[in-house]
Amino acid sequence: MSAEALQTDTDSAARRGFFYALAAYLLWGFLPFYMKAVAHIPSTEVVAHRVVWSVPIAGGLLLLLGRTADVRTALRTPRTLAMGALTAALITVNWCVYVWAIGAGRALETALGYYINPLFSVFLGAMLLGERLTRAQAVAIALAVAAVAILTWEQGGLPWVSIVLALSWGFYAFFKKTLPVGPAQGFFLEILLLAVPAVAYIAWLQASGTGHFGGTGVADAVLLLCAGVVTSVPLILYANGAKLLRLSTIGIMQYIAPTMIFFAAVFIFHEPFSTEHAVAFGLIWVALAIYSWSMFAGRRTAAAG
Description:
The protein is mostly helical. The protein is 83% helix and 0% strand. The chain has one domain.
């Protein structure tokens, strides 16, 4: 194959990856509107339905692609099962806090949490993997800490929603890298492990008459059935996009969803936005600009070397 043909294939793959990732981040950006629609349902029940209805979607895709061998191997490997259980627990915490926060009118805090996340991941790499922080990365992390400090002073307490979301997703991504399976197989393993307690919890709710699946009308049942789609589809799109794109490209694109959540929280949900919020988010945006610049500068240096 000629160099031109190879370049064409590479460019085509990158374009596909870009649109996969863009679709995923846009869907995540619109997710708060779904969460508002189910805000009258307890967050734990919504998360249980996210798990249960994701199983047939993710499982069907793996069957279609013929990628079930890794899952079968993982189910017979205690170490992989234990790591899958850990990542499943972390994503459950993340989902529960996120679903609750949107319904409780704290979408602004969720946006801040996902803005902080890439900076926390860099910090995590330095603390746990011994990766050296560049000066720009250290400045970006310091600005993020300053933003959290400002909000802590303004609220009279830590913005715990933002912190829990950043920590749970950061550790989830960190430990997920150790799973010896692909991202789609890993996601299916996680929801498979969560499916048994999720089904038991839903069955208990329905038996006690407090469940919202069918007992409170067709609308709630349809909304809860959609939980699998809104959970699985963006994750599957993201997994396919991440395989085809440079890490730096994905790094920049991950700001799309929290930016959409931020604008929805302020201009559509009309959540309070104080001067302190403006200063804190300003610091976060400066921090992310510095962090993004450091990524591109590092890539150019590596290419020149």
